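Budget justification note: compute hours in this period were largely spent on complex prediction jobs such as the one shown. Inputs:
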Amino acid sequence: MDDVELRRFTDNYWAWQGLKWAPFGPVLMWAGVSLLGQRWLGDTAANGVTVILLAGALATVRPVQRYYDAMFGVVEQVPDAHRRRERLKWLAAYPLLLVVPFVEILLQPRLSPTAVTLAGVIVAFWWSTGRGRPHYVVAAAVMAALVALPATGFTAPGRPVVGTLVIGVGVLYVVGGILDHRELTRRLGPLLVESVAPPTADAG
Amino acid sequence: MAVPAPLAGLDSLDRLVHEPARLAILTALSACRSADFVFLMRLTSLTKGNLGSHLAKLEAAGLVEIRKVLHGRRPLTTVALTDEGARRVERHWAQLELLRSAGSAQSGPTRRSSGGP
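Corresponding output:
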């Protein structure tokens, strides 16, 4: 790592702890399946699956954080170092992620604004959290390519497209989380222990 | 033999900061409020003893501050850059950048002239 990469990595160490994000992938995948209108489960059972997946994902947060703290170390961020990023996240990214899919479901356009939004948010996340990790660039490119999904006829416009994209984001949480973790372990070497000199032949 | 002009600046480099492991430690610390021993061990691929020895030198020079804190119920050794440490590492990187630029400026015309008739 050069000095710029070293600073970016340390500054955004929390974002590279991918195993924290991976358990939320199945929650999103299930949400996507629900948007597609699955009919194998009744409403009560479907809600139960949602609660179990969400509770399971939330239950992993603290143990996984403890694992990262113990195995890879603790970094305390500079407070307010990313005020601009936080502002953009709360005032632009999250509102867009909530509003755009609803608009797409309502208007059923031939090109998917949700795919464009997701591609933009993925790039913004990657850019603002230390870059590296090329899988986010690939994921954003795939999302951008899915803009034309409603026009292909592969899925009907509106709700099915949004459902498919949400499943895609769920897959990204799992795969991206695992690849983030891999990148983190590549940047942080193994814990070395002092070697104890073996006894020499003439010892004693 | 005279030292080429761009390399003359090497003499003025801060040797305490310039050592690769210490430079990595200080650079990483410049991007956060503090980092613990385990993170720095992994980042620098140093053993506990070697890291401890580098940190002791940096602490003695007033560049870092080492604290023992409780993280939950776990004792943690955290390291943070002092104001002086932050100034020294920034100045060091600026100096290296100047040397690099001077080196490029010097080697540029040489490369071009070596390709000539």
